[in-house]
Amino acid sequence: MRAWAVTQPGPIESRPLQLVDKPDPRPGPGEILVRVRACGVCRTDLHVAEGDLPVHREDVTPGHEVVGEVVELGPGAEGFAPGDRVGVAWLHRTDGTCDRCARGAENLCEASLYTGWDVDGGYAEYVTVPAAFAYALPSDVDDVSIAPLLCAGIIGFRALRRTGLLDGTGIGPDRPKRLGLYGFGGSAHLCAQAAVALGIEVHVMTRGEQSRRLATELGAASVGDAYDAPPVPLDAAITFAPVGELVPVAMRALDRGGVLAIAGIHLSDIPAINYERELFYEKEIRSVTANTRDDGRQFLELAARHGVRATTHEYPLSKADEALADLKAGRFDGAAVLVPDA
Predict the structure, then answer these.
(1) To the nearest whole percent, how much of the chain has pLDDT over 90?
(2) Which contacts of 212-215 are long-range, i.e. CB under 8 A and separated by 24 or more positions?
(3) 55-64 in b/e burial notation, b at 16+ Cβ within 10 A?
(4) How many whole angstroms separate alpha carbon 11 and alpha carbon 46?
(5) What gap in Å lies between CA 296 and CA 91, rounded to an integer?
(6) Measured between alpha carbons, how far apart are the two ends of the chain, in Å?
(7) How far apart are CA 149 and CA 329, in angstroms?
């Protein structure tokens, strides 16, 4: 099969990805073989290609927002049949036996493996996945539109949960909860839709005129530059841009008791934080590590109920390297999605 491989991690301009021929994968015990019909392009793929994340598998094929069709079941695989449409996401497997898995924190399992980093992913014609970690997808959303929901959407939802805004505690009867989003790419534009649907007031700080227009179209209460102060104190914020110097900026924008969730898997160094100005008054910083399958199921249900949709830009599989270069350069709003070549 045709597949992209990270042959030598480095700047995307140095062409770290190469289109190669790999043997067709075979499903192992409990796994399913999936023919790829669409694969979203995630910033984590860029981090894998450029070496921001350490190499876990030589010549790995990136891609973990996969929509495809089941073509074969491995021994003991259950829950799906050939012809079913499924989603393949970032979390590939956990041990299922450690104390973290037992208490519902499988995203923190030390034996966890990840699609497109530890095992080959969806920048290819076929991919395998444990049946227990594949998602059944609704039939009323097309392949391209739903692909980014499988990581960008799920991670944004996980970050939203980490802010505490969904825990049922109220801010007060006189106003809605206020959320700030720093960066407005594939994940943030889905998180914003979910938050607005849940009655949260969203304020967006981002670079790029296209992204600002999209934020306005999706119902943001205010839109400004990444380093601008929002017009009101924030109850919570999420940084999506992998820029550490935005952390103290976001902390200054928080109201007393506010929480900042950092959504990325990679972040440049955070500068010194001034305790009195940026952390006092019981403000908190929380990281976001992958997601649980429960996060994924809850978000896909919420997205179906409220019509959360990705703004997408299609690229043929043969131009995956171009899609990553455009992502790095900020040449599109929303999310890029790879589709089979015509």
Answers:
(1) 95
(2) 212/184, 213/333, 214/184, 214/189, 214/311, 214/333, 214/334, 215/181, 215/184, 215/189
(3) eebeebbbbb
(4) 9
(5) 10
(6) 15
(7) 22
Are the CB atoms for 27 and 73 separated by under 8 Å? yes
Q: How far apart are CA 110 and CA 122, in angstroms?
A: 24
246 band by pLDDT with thresholds 50, 70 and 90: very high
Q: What does the alpha-carbon distance between residue 291 and residue 11 come to, in Å, rounded to a whole number?
A: 27
What number of other Cβ atoms are within 10 A of residue 112's Cβ? 20
**What does each C-alpha distance from 331 to 14, 189, 324 come to in angstroms?**
18, 15, 10
175, burial (CB in 10 Å: exposed 0-12, middle 13-18, buried 19+): exposed
Q: Residue 208 has which token pair?
A: 């790029």
Cα distances (Å, whole numbers) of residue 220 to 184, 193, 200, 302 = 11, 9, 10, 19
- Within 10 angstroms of residue 284's Cβ, the number of other Cβ atoms is 16
Q: Tell me the two tokens of residue 329.
A: 């350069």
pLDDT, position 171 = 57
Q: Is the pTM of this model over 0.90?
A: yes
